[in-house]
Specification:
alpha/beta; about 325 residues; 5-stranded mixed β-sheet; Nucleotidyltransferase, domain 5; about 20% strand; globular; 2 domains; 11 strands; about 40% helix; 6-stranded mixed β-sheet
């Protein structure tokens, strides 16, 4: 879901027109400012912009702080010409009703979406399917009629298939099975023991419970991909399952939207898809085996992409 507002505030002072993209995530909020040509001129950051995690007031304070810091560093003043905000936990119509008036002091023209939809800003007309595979996983799509849908985003307990967390969790499980003799031997076991500076498989229990946070488990995904590229059968299987899950999520979202030429535009982001060409290509092969793709963009920084989209003429 997305929404726009044009509150009619006065243009920002001075001859320089500025545009802002804001990625308000669960851990931090990043704001990037570009000029009319889409060239980055400044950025700012602050704390969590997830209202579900820190509450509405703190989330809004983070968004305003990041935007103000970036605009000030760019030599501008608020409100800027236009901004695209992607905010965690913004999904329901009531969320947009609450957020939009509070964002109007930042920009004359405001676009607000869930942060998962922010990578769509890299696609022509913001139309296509955004696939996010980082610590968690979610897929969000939008077609030219404005219809939107999503898959995933259920969290690490019941979902996040294909995510870095799921890769890490599956790797630990494979290590435990290998240590017991219930599963095949895997180079993941010595790799993870060395990574965590552990002496024996039994030490995994004391390490994992309750000391390792979600992102600590997700960090093991790098080992999985490294060992998979090195030929380890168990690591390759884990990576293959993850690529399959990401692909079917993209296809599921695409099947519920209307793309006239039948091709699926894709915006790929998140640590797994941006950081690993091997994993990214594995996902694309699985998608293309069932449906042709159109424009494919690798989105390194959704906030920068959103700022550049905000700089485009209003529809």
């Amino acid at each position: 879901m997305s929404s726009t507002a044009q509150p009619g505030a006065a243009p920002n002072a001075g001859p320089r027109r500025l545009y802002v993209g804001v990625d308000a995530g669960g851990t931090k909020t990043l704001a990037v400012v570009v000029d009319p040509e889409g060239v980055e001129v400044a950025r700012g950051s602050s704390g969590s912009g997830n209202q579900a995690a820190v509450g509405l007031e703190r989330a809004m304070a983070s968004i305003h702080a990041a935007a103000e810091e970036a605009v000030r560093a760019a030599g501008g003043t608020l409100p800027v010409e236009a901004a695209w905000f992607g905010a965690s936990a913004v999904d329901r119509p009531s969320d947009f009703d609450v957020y939009l008036p509070r964002l109007s002091p930042i920009a004359r023209r405001v676009r607000l979406t869930n942060d998962g939809a922010l990578p769509l800003s890299a696609l022509e007309g913001a139309v296509g399917v955004a696939v996010i595979a980082g610590t968690g996983s979610i897929t969000i799509g939008r077609d030219s009629t404005g219809a939107e849908t999503r898959a995933g985003g259920w969290g690490h307990i019941v979902g996040d298939e294909g995510s870095a967390y799921e890769l890490g969790r599956a790797a630990i499980q494979a290590c435990c099975r290998a240590a017991d003799g219930r599963g095949e031997a895997t180079s993941l076991l010595p790799a993870i023991l060395a990574y965590w500076d552990l002496l024996a498989p039994e030490d995994l229990i004391g390490k994992v419970y309750p000391h390792v946070p979600k992102d600590g488990i997700a960090a093991l995904s790098r080992l999985v991909l490294t060992e998979a590229e090195g030929g380890d059968r168990r690591a390759r299987s884990i990576a293959s399952v993850a690529a399959h899950e990401i692909a079917i999520s993209a296809l599921a979202v695409g099947s519920r939207l209307n793309f006239p030429d039948g091709k699926l535009p894709l915006a790929l982001t998140g640590g797994l898809l941006v950081g690993s060409q091997t994993f990214r290509q594995a996902v694309l092969r699985r998608v293309r085996a069932r449906r042709p793709t159109g424009q494919v963009e690798i989105v390194h920084e959704p906030a920068l992409s959103a700022a550049r989209a905000a700089a485009q003429p209003a529809e």
